[in-house]
C-alpha cells in the first residue's frame, strides 16, 4: 500500500502546466457523497477486488481487477467497495494545472468511463514511481510533473494503441537514462529556441538515431513534444497573467508570434486572443 500523500509544492505549481495534487493506494472504504466532486482530476486503478462509482444523474460504473477510471474534477459522486469482495485495493493519483483541462479534453470519452487497462502493470509501476517522487518532498515537483504526463500518455496509449515500425530499446519500467536527460533538458529550456541537434548531442546520439528512439519511447517526435509543452504552458500564462499580450506569451515560449498563433489555433481550435477573451468573461 502507498499511504495517501498530499503533494507539497511550496508554490512551485504556478509555473508547472501539470502537477500532482495527491497520490496513493489503499483498501478503499465507502466515500460519502461528494456533492461538488473533488477539486482535481483523478485517475483510479483497481489492483484487486471490486467497487462502484455512482453519480447524481444515476450513472454507475463498476471497477474490477486491472481496470481504470478517469474522473474529472468537480463531478459530484460517491463510491463504495462491493460487499462480496474481501477488499477493494484502489490506487489513485490526482492532478491539476493549466494543462490539466486540455489533457482531459484530449482524453475525451475515456473520462467517466470504466475501462480495461491492457497495460495495467506499467500504469501501476508509474503510480508507485510518482508516489516515491512526491514522498521526497517539494523539490521533486518538476519530476513528478514529468511522470504524471507520462502516466497519462501511457493510459491513453493503452486505450488507443498505435502500430510502430520499431521496438522500444528500453522497456517501460527501465527507461533510457539518456532520453530522460533529453526530456529534462526540453522541460528546462522549452522557452528557448531549441535545436534538435543540440538536444540529440546532449543525449549522446546522432539526430536521426535520437529521433527514432524518442518516437519509439514517447509516441511523438521531439518537435511535437516541445510544441505540446509550449501550448500547455501558454494556457497557464494566459491564466496567471490576465491581460498579457499574445506577443508577450509567444516571447516567453521562445516562438515567433505568427507561428505561435497558428499552432495555438491548430491545437485548441481558437486563436490565443479568443482564448484570452473567453477566460476574461
Describe the protein.
With 281 residues, the chain is an alpha+beta fold. The protein folds into 2 domains: 158 residues, Jelly Rolls; 57 residues, Arc Repressor Mutant, subunit A, CATH 1.10.10. Helices cover 44% and strands 20% of the residues. It has a 6-stranded antiparallel sheet.
Largest sheet: 6 strands, antiparallel
Number of strands: 10
Order of strands side by side in the largest beta sheet?
1-2-9-4-7-10
In the CATH hierarchy, the third-tier topology of the largest domain is known as: Jelly Rolls
Overall CATH architecture of the largest domain: Sandwich
Give the helix/strand class.
alpha+beta
Protein name: AraC family transcriptional regulator
Keywords: DNA-binding, Transcription, Transcription regulation
GO molecular function: DNA-binding transcription factor activity; sequence-specific DNA binding
InterPro entries: AraC-bd, Homeodomain-like_sf, HTH-like, HTH_AraC
What's the structural blueprint in terms of helices and strands?
Layout: E1 2-6, E2 19-27, E3 31-34, E4 41-48, E5 51-55, E6 60-63, E7 67-71, E8 77-81, E9 89-96, H1 100-107, E10 115-116, H2 120-135, H3 141-159, H4 177-189, H5 196-203, H6 207-218, H7 222-240, H8 246-252, H9 257-268, H10 272-280
Antiparallel strand pairs: 1-2, 2-9, 3-8, 4-7, 4-9, 5-6, 5-8, 7-10
Helix pairs in contact: 2-3, 4-5, 5-6
Amino acid at each position: 500500500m502507498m499511504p495517501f500523500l498530499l503533494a507539497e509544492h511550496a508554490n512551485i505549481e504556478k509555473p508547472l502546466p501539470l502537477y500532482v495534487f495527491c497520490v496513493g493506494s489503499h483498501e478503499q472504504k465507502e466515500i460519502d457523497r461528494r456533492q461538488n466532486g473533488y477539486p482535481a482530476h483523478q485517475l483510479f486503478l483497481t489492483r484487486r477486488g471490486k467497487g462502484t462509482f455512482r453519480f447524481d444523474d444515476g450513472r454507475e460504473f463498476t471497477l474490477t481487477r486491472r481496470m481504470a477510471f478517469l474522473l474529472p474534477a468537480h463531478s459530484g459522486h460517491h463510491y463504495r467497495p462491493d460487499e462480496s469482495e474481501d477488499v477493494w485495493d484502489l490506487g489513485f493519483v490526482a492532478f491539476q494545472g493549466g494543462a490539466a483541462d486540455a489533457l482531459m479534453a484530449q482524453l475525451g470519452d475515456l473520462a467517466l468511463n470504466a475501462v480495461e487497462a491492457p497495460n495495467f502493470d506499467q500504469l501501476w509501476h508509474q503510480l508507485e514511481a510518482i508516489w516515491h517522487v512526491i514522498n521526497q518532498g517539494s523539490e521533486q515537483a518538476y519530476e513528478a510533473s514529468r511522470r504524471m504526463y507520462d502516466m497519462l500518455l501511457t493510459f491513453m496509449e493503452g486505450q488507443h494503441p498505435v502500430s510502430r515500425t520499431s521496438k522500444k530499446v528500453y522497456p517501460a519500467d527501465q527507461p533510457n537514462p539518456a532520453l530522460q536527460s533529453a526530456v529534462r533538458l526540453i522541460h528546462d529550456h522549452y522557452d528557448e529556441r531549441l535545436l534538435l541537434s543540440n538536444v540529440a548531442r546532449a543525449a549522446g546520439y546522432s539526430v536521426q538515431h535520437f529521433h527514432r528512439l524518442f518516437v519509439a519511447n514517447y509516441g511523438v517526435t521531439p518537435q511535437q513534444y516541445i510544441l505540446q509543452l509550449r501550448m500547455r504552458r501558454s494556457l497557464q500564462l494566459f491564466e496567471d497573467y490576465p491581460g498579457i499580450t499574445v506577443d508577450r506569451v509567444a516571447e516567453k515560449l521562445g516562438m515567433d508570434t505568427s507561428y505561435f498563433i497558428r499552432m495555438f489555433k491548430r491545437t485548441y481550435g481558437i486563436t490565443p486572443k479568443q482564448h484570452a477573451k473567453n477566460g476574461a468573461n
